[in-house]
Amino acid sequence: MPGDGRAVNAGEAVGAAGRGRMYRNVGLLSACWALTSTSNVVLATVSALAGYQLADDKALATLPATMMWIGTASATLPASFLMRRIGRRAGFMIGAVIGAAGALIATLAILYSNFYLLCAGVALNGVYNAFNYYYRFAGAEVADEAFRARAISLVLAGGVIGALAGPELSKWAGGLTAPVLFLGPFMTMAALATAVLAIVGFVDAPRSGAQARGGGRPLAEIARQPAFVVAVLGAIVAYGVMVLLMTVTPVAMIACGHDFADATFVIQWHVLGMFAPSFFTGHLIRRFGILAIMASGALLLAACCAVALSGLAVTNFWIALALLGLGWNFLYVGATTLLTEVHTSAERAKVQGANEFMVFGVAGVDSFFSGNLHFYFGWETLNLIALAPAAAALAAVLWLARHRRMALADPIV
């Protein structure tokens, strides 16, 4: 009937418009993450070296990076609940303003050779990142169920831009302000945060405040789910091991006689390893399952440690840090996808906030101890320590896989 045909065509048009809006939002979120990850690569490249230059006690070289993770951990819950109230877009814009302010404070710290002012500026960049790490969740929220895993991975794929541009920006910006080392990179970070502020205003992210008024189940009840435990543990291990090794890598390489260009090259490949796989991680999750990809990530983290322990040449650092990035990607994207399965819309803010608080709280502790452990015990000891959490993550994933098989065989389990 003609009327039926018009109804079908109208439905197809609405569906096409919805898909177009979904793809556009994922693209914009990915662009924002590209800019924020570029800023993070610049920060990762220079923060420990700037700290080493300004600190009287060289064991405190990674304290600025530690303050970044403390800033992130302390702001994750407030950022989550603020965005539940005012929406993702407004929250991301507030975060960008904080990020620009933090970068400018760090710029002043370099100008006045003030180590503690540097720590304060980098801490504000940590608060900025507390907002930024919700980009992947926003990607899941603007996507339908079939596209959700791929949306998460595609948002994170924007980090490839950071991997390619971050180290080059560090060198280029540093050259612009020579002989004042590290001044240009922090000025560049302020400009990147301003660009995020401009782009994120076009994101059409749903506001979940109305859906979330009921609050859902208590967090303690949600946390008793095996999938919640494994998702959070997987994310903690992915970030914890990555931060433990990556934060101090530039300092370790300089201590081994390698130069700054070598360190930026290795960090570049590390970040490529973190984000380039995101173009296909979502597809791999759909094909092989979340737990298989998470287990692969844990094994890749262990492989990173094995390569790092086999020598101190640039090649060893390069391969180890690339494997570290790849392992992080598989374990972290898998854990994020798994976490979306354990809560309702009403429970989203508290579950995501609790997850981020635990992940970045551990990352902050690891960042602080990485500098001390390297200073007192060396690079090899760091890698031996990192093997333990990688093994724990693998054991947890295998346990959950067994639990699910038993539940299928006996629904009472």
Describe this structure in words.
Residues 1-14 have low confidence and may be disordered. This protein is mostly helical and 413 residues long. The radius of gyration is 21 Å and the shape is globular. The protein has one domain (24-409): MFS general substrate transporter like domains (Growth Hormone, Chain: A), CATH 1.20.1250. It has helices at residues 2-54, 63-86, 88-111, 115-132, 135-141, 148-157, 159-176, 183-200, 219-223, 226-246, 249-255, 260-275, 278-288, 290-309, 314-339, 348-377, 379-409. Helix 12 (260-275) runs parallel beside helix 15.
Features:
disordered N terminus, 17 helices, Growth Hormone, Chain: A, mainly alpha, 413 residues
Task: Please give a quick description of this structure.
This protein is mainly alpha-helical. The chain has 17 helices and no strands. Helix 1 packs antiparallel against helix 8 and helix 13 crosses helix 14.
Task: Tell me the Rg in angstroms.
Answer: 21 Å
The domain count comes to 1
Coarse morphology: globular
CATH 4th-level superfamily: MFS general substrate transporter like domains
User: What is the H-and-E element order?
Assistant: HHHHHHHHHHHHHHHHH
Task: Look at the structure and give the CATH class.
Answer: Mainly Alpha
Q: State the helix count.
A: 17
Helix content: over 70%
* Quantity of strands, as a count: 0
Helix-strand makeup class: mainly alpha
Per CATH, the architecture is: Up-down Bundle
Name the poorly predicted regions: 1-14
Main sheet: strands, sense, barrel: none
